[in-house]
Every structure is written in C-alpha cells, then in structure tokens.
Amino acid sequence: MVSVKAKKLAPTDGMLSRHAAAPAASGWADVARASARARLETVGAPQRRDEYWSFTNPTRFVSDQPTAAQPLVTDEAAIFADADALVLTFVDGVFDAAQSGDLSVEGLEIQSLTDALGTDIHWAKDLFGVLEERGQNPVPRELAMLNTAVATQGFVLRATKPVARPVRFNYVQSSDTSDAVMHSLVKVDAGASLTVLESGTVAARCNTVMEIDIADNGEFHHVRAQGRAHDRQVFTAMFARLGKESVYKSFTLSMNGVLTRNEQVVEFTGDDAMAHVAGTCVGQGDFHHDDTVFVTHDAVNCESRQVFKKVLKSGATGVFQGKILVKKGAQKTDGYQISQGLLLDDEVNFLAKPELEIYADDVICSHGSTSGGLDTTGLFYLLSRGVPRPAATNMLVIAFMDEAVQEIADDTLADEMRAHIAGWLDRHSEG
Amino acid sequence: MLEIKNLHVKLAEEDKVILKGVDLTVEAGKVHAIMGPNGSGKSTLSYVLAGRDGYEVTDGSAALSGVDLLDLEPEERASEGLFLAFQYPVEIPGVGNMTFLRTAVNAQRKARGEAELTAGEFLKVVREKAKSLKIDAEMLKRPVNVGFSGGEKKRNEILQMAMLEPKMCILDETDSGLDVDAMKLVSDGVNALRDEGRAFLVITHYQRLLDHIKPDVVHIMADGRIVKTGGPELALEVEQNGYADILSEVA
Q1: Which residues in chain A have their CB less than 8 angstroms from residue B50's CB?
Q2: Which residues of A touch B90 (CB under 8 A)?
Q3: For a 10 Å CB count at each end of chain B, is N or C smaller?
Q4: How many whole angstroms separate alpha carbon A388 and alpha carbon A429?
Q5: Are A401 and B94 within 8 A, CB to CB?
Q6: Contact (CB<8Å) A391/B107
Q7: How far apart are CA A274 and CA A219, in angstroms?
Q8: CB of B249 within 8 Å of any CB in chain A?
Q9: What is the distance in angstroms between the Cα of B104 and the nearest Cα belonging to chain A?
Q10: Is B238 touching A (CB cutoff 8 A)?
Q11: Do B84 and A406 touch (CB under 8 A)?
Q12: pLDDT exceeds 80 at position A25
C-alpha cells in the first residue's frame, strides 16, 4: 500500500527533471533555486485531495507531457496593439528578441531572465523566489515552487520612476506540445509606477510566475487577456508585496480554455496601501477556470478588493477560492470580496469558497458569492426595444462582466477589454 | 390601433388573477390615459401587452393594427410598433447608450424588411433628437442608464421612443420620480411625437402629468377592469375626490 505522502512525492522528480537545468553561471539564483527544489521535494506535487485543489484537478499540471493543444488561428486585430507598449515577444515561452521592441525605456531597467541569470551580481537576488516562498505559508503552492526551481525564461523589470509606457508580454504559441515555464520579476521603486500587459497563449502548457515588489508610494497596474487556444493548460501565480501607500491593480480576462488556474497572493506590509484583484471569464463546454486568491493584511488602513465574475455555458466550470487574512494589529482594514457566476443553462458548475480570517477588531470585511441566471427584467427591457434575443443576452453578459472590467484604472484599456468580450460573444452566440 | 377585448390574466406561477376582463380600444392619433388605485392592474396590463414573462392570458385578445400581439415575442411586438416606456428603466453597464439604440433601431428595421441605418445616418438622427430632449453627447456615450438621475432615465426612454418611432406608445408611470422641470421636458418630448398615425396609452396615478400630456380619453381601472371612461374632466375629478367616489358609484 502506497502512503498518501509517497503518492504526493512520487511525481516531483519527473516535474523537476523534465525542464532543462539552469545555466551554471546563475550564481545569485542558485540558493533560491535549490531552496525551491528542496521545498518541492519535501511537500510533493499537488493532488486532488489537497484542500485547495479539490475543485480543480491538478493532474495535467503534474503529468510528464502536456496534453496537445492546437495554437489559436485568428484574423482578429492584435490585442493592446494601440497601447504603444514596449513589446516583449515569447514564442512557446522563449524570448524572441527579433520580434520584440528596443529595451530602452525611460525609468525602466529591463533584462531577460536568461541574461540576468548570466550576471554575477543582480538586485533580482533579493526578489527571485523570495515572495514566492513567503506565499507558501499557510497554503503550499507546489507549482510555483517548481517554477522557481527550473525557470530560465521570463523578464526582470525595475521601475525607478513613473514609467509612462506599458510593457507588454506578447505570447505566441507555435508548437501544439510546447511546455513553458516563465518567471518574471517586477520591482517598483519608491514613488515609481509601471503597467504590465499580457496577451496570448504562452504554450500548450505553461507555468508562469510573477513576483512584484512595490515600494512605498509605488504603483503597479496589470491587465491580462489570457490565451484563447482552447486546449491549452495554464497555471499562473502572481505574488505581490505592497509597501506603504502603494497600489496594486491586476485584471485578467479569460475566454476559452480547458484548464486555467490563476493564483494571486497579495501581502500588505506597509500602511494605507490598496490592492484590487479582478477577473472575468466566459466559456462553454469543457471550459474550466479557477481563480485562487489569498490576500494578507499585515498593516494598518489598507484596502483590498477581489472582484470575480464568471460566465458559464453548456458544461463549463468556474471556480473561485478567495481568502482575506487580517493579521493581529491590521486595524482599519477594508477588505471586500465578491464572486459571481452567471449560469446560462443548467449544465454548468460554479464552485466558490470564500474565506475570511480576522485577528483585528476594528476592520470592515465583507464577502459575497452568488450564482444565477440572466437578469429577467433586463432581458425584458432589451427585448421590448426590439433587440433580438441573442444580442440581448450578449448585452446582459457584458453588463454582468463589467463590474470586473471597471476595476481597470485606464479607460482605454478597459474599453479594449469590453470590445474584446463583445467580439467573442458575437462569434459565439446563436442566430 | 390597439384593440383589447375581454382580457383575463393571471400570474403564471400562482393562482392570482390580476386582469378580469379588460376592454379597451385606442384609436390612431389619440391619447388615452389609465388611472386607478395601486394594485388595480395598470402596470400588469402594460407588461402583458409588451410580452413580459410571468403572466398567463386565460381569456381575451389584444391586437395592434389587426395583428394579434399575444402570440408574439416581445421583440416581435416591438417591431410591430409597440413601445413601453418603463417606470424603472434598467441599467446596462458596459453597453454604450448609442450601441444599444443603434442595435434596437436596426434590428427593428431589419425585422420590417427596411434598410439598416449606417453609423453616419444613425448618428445624425440621434444627435438631432437627443438635442431636443437636452441629452448631451456625454450621456449618449455612457452605458445605458448607468449613473443617470431619475429625470435622465425618463428622458432616455423618450429618446428611445423617438428613435424607434412606434405606432403605439405605452407610458408606465413615466411621471414617477420626476420634478416639475423634468416632467415638462419629458412631456414636451412626448407631445412632439403626437401624430395622426400614432397612439398613446398613458398610465399614471396623478392628474398633473395629464396637464402636460393632454388626453382625449381617461379610463379608471379598478380590480382588474376598466370601470369608468370619460373625458379629461374625469382625471380632474380623481385629483379632487380620490377614487372612492368613483369606485362606490360603479360598485
């Protein structure tokens, strides 16, 4: 009889060895890598019986090979094309300098992770794997450990002042069996700001981690439109640490995808800071989308918001696991969390696990989770104007998703997300 | 124009009968008003005509220019020329007012076999009509009814009516939540649409709206029936004496 522990440990060798070993020159990262490797070998692989994997089966993240996924073929206009961003193109998760922009941007130190690893001394040493490791307690995040242990692709960004130009990670999937691991670092210095955009399918299977360290008065904005190649398997984790009076805003749009797990681990360490984590998704059939969020308040007078809206149709599954932890002394915390499923028929599943854990007595925390069908009054209103039923349904879906889209600070980017959603709905509606 | 005969309606989910034999004919070019105490069935009548779910017609008929309304979907009734101005217009975040209006106008034109308006043609018409209702470009751009005041929502309803050019307009307590100035603006908008080929059914609690939108005929509705019909003076009588006198008279 194989013990539970042995079952959890068995896949880790394979997980670690299937990715090429890191370059030997990566001196500054060696400690973090070795630590991550050792942690993974101790904890083992994620499995269904783990508390935070009970709604999403991790098998395909652990298996030797990704499930084959055809790249998306589309003639749509590229997303974020108007944003005048510095474009970093990755093909199957590997940086492609030829398809990327000139890396000189005012106020920004920027380097590929591969190049950074080849440097003897680097500021990244104090961030690489550091927030990831902090985020392992109390809930282990095994896939993020794996990522730190093996990743050689990704980017290292440091904003030293407010950076006007966004940086866009432009993902291009080329192979239907690609298996990518990317690890990026973002350091926002005191008073600096940076916007990061992400778009496209990274690979057939991907594991991407981003660690974001925001110093006092710093600001970080993140808008992501995840890849729509339907069969791709996506694991992402963002680990953010917020200093005093800093701002962290992250928004994710997902349309299509048989397996998506987006984790967000946010920690307030300075007072008067703000973190808004939002996401909306729409999918049908074997679509499975999981948002797992953990916000830790360990400072005074910070505001956190989690807004997740999932539109599910014909067999689709939406998962939300969100936690607000308010530590002792984190007074005047304002924590808010809402997760909602719009169930367009009876065949879908919306699984929500909202959690609050509070050890301070002067806080405002609220959470809500609902699931239901289309707003019948709204539907009648639109139909009574002569709007055909499929178009009326789409308008109400857009209205439902919009609460999350409104979390994007930049109106132009928000409108672009709206147009992207409307386009998808048009293509997927009956009649 | 609108012909309602012996209309009986109950709630679909329960055995509550709301309309108990409504007979009403509204001729083209006329404005009819329906007044009545709370719970008399006024709003239900408007919902049933527009095709809202949740009601079951157990007897009677309703036709618009000879077309049986009760067999049609709400969007088909709209294309036939029926319009209901809502008491509580619905907010649709994320959908621009213009996008919504253009979708509605062109869907109706398409359903009637007419050519759809191009973006340019539509813009020209909507700007002109919005101006007379004091709806500015900003309000046209905003999501449908989101963040609108009570008066702005009602003006937006009238703008939709002006754009869709229906034959039969039903106004369900359009005066609710309006101050005097807003009521004047909304009424002017309605009056501008009065036309020989168009009829109105104005549902209201109060006579004051009828000072601005002058009715040809006034009906009093009570307990699911029209119990009395008269001229504009009937509305004044209600304003002065309430419904009690009329109800005891017909009881």
Answers
A1: 380, 384
A2: 375, 377-378, 381-382
A3: C
A4: 11
A5: yes
A6: yes
A7: 9
A8: no
A9: 5
A10: no
A11: no
A12: no
A160 has pLDDT over 90: yes
Mean pLDDT of A406-414: 96
| 3-class SS letters over B186-251 | HHHHHHHHCCCCCEEEEECCCCHHHHHCCCCEEEEEECCEEEEEECCHHHHHHHHHCCHHHHHHHC
Structure confidence at residue B204 as a pLDDT band (50, 70, 90) = very high
| B interface test, pick of A280, A282, A374, A381 with most B CB neighbours within 10 Å | A381
With CA atoms as reference, report the closest residue to A196 among A403, A418, A413: A413
Task: Give the model confidence (pLDDT) of A331-356 as tens digits.
Answer: 999 999 999 999 999 999 999 999 99
Q: Does A98 touch chain B (CB under 8 A)?
A: no
Q: Decide: pTM greater than 0.90.
A: yes
Q: Roughly how many angstroms between the first and final C-alpha of chain A, as a whole number? A: 56
Lowest mean pLDDT among A56-60, A360-364, B16-20, B186-190: B186-190
The token duo for B134 is: 């004091």
Report, as an integer, the average pLDDT of A358-364.
96
CB contacts of B142 in chain A (<8 Å) are none
Are B78 and A403 a contacting pair at CB < 8 A?
no
Q: Smallest CA–CA separation between B47 and chain A, in Å?
A: 9
Given this model, what pLDDT does residue A81 score?
Answer: 84
Chain-chain contact of B92 with A396 (C-beta, under 8 angstroms): yes
**Could you tell me if the ipTM is greater than 0.85?**
yes
Which helix (DSSP H) or strand (DSSP E) does residue B182 occupy? helix B180-193
Provide the pairing of β-strand B199-203 with B17-26.
unpaired
Residues of chain B found within 8 Å of residue A389, distances taken between Cβ atoms? 73, 75
Chain A nearest CA to B92, separation (Å): 5
pLDDT of residue A1: 59
Sheet strand arrangement including B17-26: B17-26, B2-11, B55-64, B67-68
CB distance A191 to A161 below 8 Å: yes
Q: Are A227 and A202 in contact (CB under 8 A)?
A: yes
